[in-house]
Specification:
heterodimer, A: alpha/beta, Globin-like, Transcription Regulator spoIIAA, about 65% helix, B: alpha/beta, five-stranded mixed beta sheet, STAS_dom (chain B), STAS domain-containing protein (chain B), STAS_dom_sf (chain B)
């Protein structure tokens, strides 16, 4: 197979010029990173990569899907993960690989080398694409982790009084958030032995049918556990929207402010009186 | 003979604590036993504790509703207590509501609820 001959040739070329190529490669990459990584760091990364690449070419030829490229891939994965976390752009990350092409170009001697070079270029393109893929994936992971954190942060459940818990909602209610809010609310009802819950929507920018649906679900779930639920913090515009959209809150108590809702809850608790089990027995 | 759900008497309240997933036959037995016990003891309230149940589906929901209805006919109010948060969320997601069944957070609140409703005269929600 001609491929084998060419990759042997490549391996020979790369091993022979190792010092020169890596030196130029490191310089090329370092200059594009504009001083955000030191040359020493870049050198360490690229030296490892270079060694792994030569090894892969020797064992696996130019087929980048080959198992021989496992090591190269894992090094690239690590490299582009780190770059993504440090805030480098996809171009800068991919250039770490693609720069090797520029380095090798002047080393071409004759026609046979050109063919080998093209083969290598194809390999490097593949690997470059791979780094971009990993880079994008890492960015997505970061984004989803942040979204999760935001979800956790933005849904506190606070104890307002003995037997009364409050959930100040801030931001839009989607189904994922409703799930988190519901979970936290119901658990704290249990933990605090609370018979009243107040869901305050002062911080919810808009209430449409979707959001109302989610609110209703939360209230119904709390009721199912045996707690009374009040929705408070309905601003004038929101009250108008609710009526205009024809949203029915049914027999759920709604109050304009958190203070009103708390008063209502305390009145209800007083009405019910203390839990006396003895009287019944 | 299949297992039966125990029914405990505390004063004029009957306590039914469901500890395992119910099968059809057990539900039939429970309804039969409970109505018999209500008549025998003249109980005024029934508390069904489902804190051990991890899954409440439409079958269990229907069972709770029918037990509540039977008890009401016999002059006893029913309160379901100890529903787990995960169960409540699942029921809501499924669009099921335990129509006509009263709920309370725990046994203590449930008995308090019964006592209150008796004091105020029976006022079903």
């Amino acid at each position: 197979m001609t491929n084998v001959g060419e990759s042997d040739r490549l391996v020979g070329l790369l091993t022979q010029g190792r010092e020169e190529f890596t030196g130029k490669w490191v310089r090329g990459v370092t200059s594009t990173l504009a001083g955000r990584l030191t040359a020493a760091e870049v050198q360490q990364d690229l030296n490892e990569l270079y060694t792994a690449l030569v090894e892969a070419l020797r064992n696996g030829g130019v087929a980048t899907r080959n198992e021989a490229y496992g090591e190269v891939r894992s090094l690239l994965t690590e490299l582009s993960r780190n770059r993504a976390r440090q805030g480098f752009s996809p171009t800068e990350t991919a250039f770490s690989v693609l720069a090797l092409k520029d380095v090798l170009e002047p080393a071409l001697a004759d026609g046979a080398d050109v063919k080998a070079y093209l083969q290598l270029a194809r390999v490097l393109d593949d690997l470059g694409l791979y780094t971009i893929e990993v880079h994008a994936k890492t960015r997505e992971e970061i984004i989803s982790a942040q979204a999760e954190q935001l979800l956790e942060l933005s849904t506190p459940v606070v104890k307002l009084w003995d037997g009364v818990v409050g959930v100040p909602l801030v931001g839009t209610l989607d189904s994922a958030r409703t799930q988190v809010v519901m979970e936290k609310l119901l658990q704290s009802l249990l933990d605090l032995n609370a018979t009243h819950a107040i869901v305050d929507i002062t911080g919810v920018p808009a209430v449409d049918t979707q959001v109302a649906q989610h609110l209703l679900k939360t209230v119904v779930a709390a009721r199912m556990m045996g707690a009374e639920c009040v929705i408070s913090g309905i601003r004038p515009q929101i009250a108008q929207t609710i009526v205009a959209l024809g949203i029915e809150f049914g027999d759920i108590t709604t109050k304009a402010t958190l203070a009103d809702a708390l008063r209502h809850a305390l009145d209800r608790i007083e009405e019910r009186g203390p839990v006396e089990i003895g009287g019944l027995l | 003979m299949s297992e039966r759900v125990p029914i405990l008497k505390i004063g004029d309240v009957l306590l039914v604590s469901i500890q395992i997933d119910l099968e059809d036959q057990m539900v039939m037995d429970l309804q039969e036993d409970l109505s018999q016990r209500i008549v025998d003891t003249g109980a005024r309230g029934v508390v069904i504790d489902i804190s051990a149940l991890e899954i409440v589906d439409s079958f269990v929901g229907r069972m709770l509703a029918s037990i509540a209805a039977i008890s009401r006919v016999l002059g006893a109010e029913t309160v379901v207590v100890g529903m787990r948060p995960a169960v409540a969320m699942t029921l809501v997601e499924l669009g099921l509501s335990l129509g006509g069944v009263r709920t309370a957070l725990n046994l203590e609140q449930g008995i308090g609820e019964l006592r209150r409703s008796r004091r105020n005269g029976s006022v079903p929600r």
